[in-house]
Amino acid sequence: MEVGGLYLIIGNSIAAISAVEALRKVDPNGSITIVTKEGEPAYSPVLTPNYIAGELPLERLYLREKAFYRNRGVKVIYNDAAVKVYAGKKEVLLESGALLEYDRLLIATGGRPRPAVFPGAALRGVSVLRSLRDAAEIRRYAQGKKDAVILGGGPISMRAAWALRKLGLRVSLIISSGRLLSRLVDEEVAQLLEEALLREGGYRICKNCDLLAARGEERVERVELNTGESIPAQLIVVGKGVIANKELVEGTEIAAGKGILTDDRMETSFPGVYAAGDVAQAYDRVRKENLVNAIWPAAFAQGKVAGSNMGGGNKTFAGTVPMNVLEVGGEALAVIGVRTEEAVSLKAEGSLKKIYLGDNRITGAAFLGDLQGIGLLHTLIRNEVTLDRLPSPERLLENPEYCRLLGGYRRREAG
């Protein structure tokens, strides 16, 4: 592929940043333009709860130094959004009306929270948590408030709940399913997480529960639940999942499902157009199909592959092994891969470790309290190591030396 052309990147989070870094390694001279709807340099959405809680200053959220763009010859268009891709013409229409040309395009538009849909959702004090602007507004609005409602029991909701507890608010978690983190963990792990939250204090957990309406004059004052209860709330954070920002390719030659479909080069169905990050529907190594995996490591790896290939490289994306790490009720939790019905577990004081099995392989794991060894299990899952090449799952958990054994395996694979 000829290099030195016009590169256009839509979006400005970790997928875009890793793409720029990879692209500059193969083409130091081409023209790179980034378009972002935000007014800030690239930052980490994962850390916004820490900013809300007052544990991190604003400057610690930024992904790279201030001179990152200038030093790499990148032009950034802030406060504008792409609304349509004309792949055949190699043009992108912006919200401002500008029409940008490109030779190769990367779509890294990320995702957005599912909107709040209930009576009273337009009241002041009802928010989502996705952007730095959301975090700043939640942090400002929470000052002096006493009660918060978190709608949802997923990772975003749990991080928001933690941040608001740090600010001293009482937090009610309204969960439509029967357990916390229902898409990530099984009943046993969820029960331990619930117990940890209740021990910490300041939390109320309402399972199999739905918010019917938010009530107040101009701002939210209370919420009504399907249980018949009405509870005080001056702040509501809605965390009901994320939708890929793929509208700009709808009705075009670029194929999309739940996200924008890509091959192992992170190229879409239209040559010269790539996708990466939370908008990309890319290969999942565990489930063996293309899925949207809205996690940080996947976005970084996908952006790196896309950026290199835009500049004439020949990199491939090996696929995602889903991984989530968070703190719940003061307990560290790591979940990787896919949960199955076949599981081996080891419960000790203050910790629980579970390995999930299927098709003669380790398909996933959930570690609570003690995370030692989770990274090495991630390696085994990623490399699709069969069980006959390993000690039994029971021994992996029971043997205090199992981390060393797995470490030896990883070194052999690397060698």
How would you sum up this structure in a few lines?
With 415 residues, this protein is an alpha/beta fold. It is 25% helix and 28% strand. It has ten helices and 26 strands.
Features:
single chain; 415 residues; alpha/beta; 5-stranded parallel sheet; 10 helices; 28% strand; disordered C terminus
Question: Could you give the topology of this structure?
Answer:
Elements: E1 6-10, H1 14-26, E2 31-35, H2 48-52, H3 68-71, E3 74-77, E4 82-86, E5 91-94, E6 99-101, E7 104-107, E8 111-113, E9 126-128, H4 132-142, E10 147-151, H5 155-166, E11 170-174, H6 187-200, E12 203-206, E13 211-215, E14 222-225, E15 230-232, E16 235-238, E17 242-244, E18 260-261, E19 273-275, E20 280-284, E21 289-291, H7 296-310, E22 323-328, E23 331-337, E24 342-348, E25 351-358, E26 361-368, H8 374-382, H9 393-398, H10 402-414
Parallel strand pairs: 1-2, 1-7, 2-3, 7-19, 9-16, 10-11, 10-16, 11-12, 18-20
Antiparallel strand pairs: 4-5, 5-6, 8-17, 13-14, 14-15, 20-21, 22-23, 23-26, 24-25, 25-26
Describe the structure.
It is a single chain. With 415 residues, this protein is α/β, with parallel strands linked by helices. It has helices spanning 14-26, 48-52, 68-71, 132-142, 155-166, 187-200, 296-310, 374-382, 393-398, 402-414; strands spanning 6-10, 31-35, 74-77, 82-86, 91-94, 99-101, 104-107, 111-113, 126-128, 147-151, 170-174, 203-206, 211-215, 222-225, 230-232, 235-238, 242-244, 260-261, 273-275, 280-284, 289-291, 323-328, 331-337, 342-348, 351-358, 361-368. A 5-stranded parallel beta sheet has the order 3-2-1-7-19. The chain has a 5-stranded parallel beta sheet with strand order 9-16-10-11-12. Strand 11 (170-174), helix 6 and strand 12 form a beta-alpha-beta unit. Helix 1 packs parallel to helix 7 (296-310) and helix 8 (374-382) crosses helix 10. The longest helix is centred in the C-terminal third of the chain and has 15 residues, at 296-310.
